[in-house]
Amino acid sequence: MTGKCSLAYNGVVDAERDLFKALGDATRRIILDELTDRDGQTLFEICGRLAVKHGLASTRQAVSQHLAVLEQAGLVHTRRQGRYKFHHVDTGPLRAIVDRWPIAREEPDP
């Protein structure tokens, strides 16, 4: 029984680690912003928006690696359609942060 509990706990820790790792990089946060602004983009479209709007001249390989980290954290999901791969943002994993550290509604006593 202890082993199962430990395994479940490790899974939660790994998921949180992946989430914070994904959010810890400025380029990945910009990619999430771009997908929030216009969901369902291809790698080519994301690279173009990063270059034009943010002046980030990242290679397709670098952006692809960032997307893989975001996907590992559950923040991005992909959908294949023919030769194209469309990337969609998923803010569901952010709920774990809100649930873990809820915002206090009352002012604390001095």
UniProtKB/TrEMBL annotation:
Q: Which organism is it from?
A: Pilimelia terevasa
Q: Which residues cross the membrane?
A: none
Which InterPro entries does this entry report, sorted A to Z?
ArsR-like_HTH, HTH_ArsR_DNA-bd_dom, HTH_MetalResp_TranReg, WH-like_DNA-bd_sf, WH_DNA-bd_sf
Signal sequence span is none
Question: What SMART domains does this protein's entry cite?
Answer: HTH_ARSR (SM00418)
Q: Give the matching SUPFAM superfamilies.
A: Winged helix' DNA-binding domain
Name of the protein: Transcriptional regulator
| PANTHER family registered for this protein in UniProt | TRANSCRIPTIONAL REGULATOR, ARSR FAMILY, TRANSCRIPTIONAL REPRESSOR SDPR
Q: Does the keyword Cell membrane apply?
A: no
Which residues lie in coiled coils?
none
GO MF annotation terms:
DNA binding; DNA-binding transcription factor activity
Ranges for domain HTH arsR-type come to 8-109
**Which keywords does UniProt give here?**
DNA-binding, Transcription, Transcription regulation
